[in-house]
Amino acid sequence: MLKLSRLADYAIVILVKLGEQDGVVTSPALAAITGVPEPTVAKVLKVLSAHGFVLSQRGAKGGYRLARSLADMSVASVIAAVDGEIALTACVGGRECDTGLSCGLCGSWDVINTAIRSTLEGISLESMRPKEACSTVLAQINKLNATQTVREGA
Amino acid sequence: MLKLSRLADYAIVILVKLGEQDGVVTSPALAAITGVPEPTVAKVLKVLSAHGFVLSQRGAKGGYRLARSLADMSVASVIAAVDGEIALTACVGGRECDTGLSCGLCGSWDVINTAIRSTLEGISLESMRPKEACSTVLAQINKLNATQTVREGA
DNA sequence: TAATTAAAGACCTGAATGGTCCTGTTTCGG
DNA sequence: CCGAAACAGGACCATTCAGGTCTTTAATTA
């Protein structure tokens, strides 16, 4: 299915919502806004804080706020922070497959990984915000498809 | 991590290897070639057969062979056959998020899903074969990156 | 100093994936 | 005609890991 982990999903939602608030926001408040369970929100925020996406302020009247603008955060970077490196398969960077498969495809996998990574790096959290930005991204996709000519099958 | 399931990984390796043989090949033989455990190979081949990627021949002297050329199989189609639809997150096609998140980002996710899908559809199994085809795909990636200008963050 | 809130980490649970096996059914060879 | 070989199609188990909870500690403010 090639699906994203839910934590990464949450992380993106949380960041976007956090960007729409002003001042510091507590994790319970963000939980209320997003509908994500509070402990999970806290967990995600810790990770995001550790990776420099948000700034935390401890103590009374503490909370979180964005470390930089949404436009300066790519979807890829958030996913990488929460879930680790984006890699579709075990054999990455020329390392041998763990199972010792004689697949000989390791290099080719890297190509795919790079393609996916580039795609996600090209999408900022700013463009994830509802409505307005969608058309922009859609235009990108169309241009992207026009470029894609390697081949397609049924 | 956004990683591919191992079954889909195997499926691609098996198809590529199958394409390099001539005549029908038994699943034990493919297991030997790929290094994947035989029962697993058999399982994957059944799925691939059901989805029309390979043709099976039953009985003694039976085995499998490709239903069409590797160039006519996209990475995306194989993944979709083995793992189901490619979708990075729960909210797809405008459906509400199952958790009832008030994320309001559902539409934006679709954009990402489409982008990933297009990328993988642009890569054929033929181009997964070692060596020769890599340069071609790499050129694609570069062109693709040049097109991507939405924005990128740290 | 007391209350509030984030930081950090241990820990539990459950779903889902990967992997195995078993029982047909078909086809070829003797 | 019979047996072996090989696919078909399940059921089934086991392991992993993500997701979520709880507890303790530390910092900040009133």
UniProtKB/TrEMBL annotation, chains A, B:
Superkingdom, natural source: Bacteria
Database matches in SUPFAM superfamilies: Winged helix' DNA-binding domain (SSF46785)
UniProt xrefs under PROSITE patterns: HTH_RRF2_2
GO cellular component: cytosol
InterPro entries: SUF_FeS_clus_asmbl_reg (IPR014290), Tscrpt_reg_Rrf2 (IPR000944), WH-like_DNA-bd_sf (IPR036388), WH_DNA-bd_sf (IPR036390)
Pfam family, one: Rrf2
Record field: transmembrane: none
GO MF annotation terms: DNA-binding transcription factor activity
PANTHER family: TRANSCRIPTIONAL REGULATOR, WINGED HELIX-TURN-HELIX TRANSCRIPTIONAL REGULATOR, RRF2 FAMILY
Protein name: Transcriptional regulator
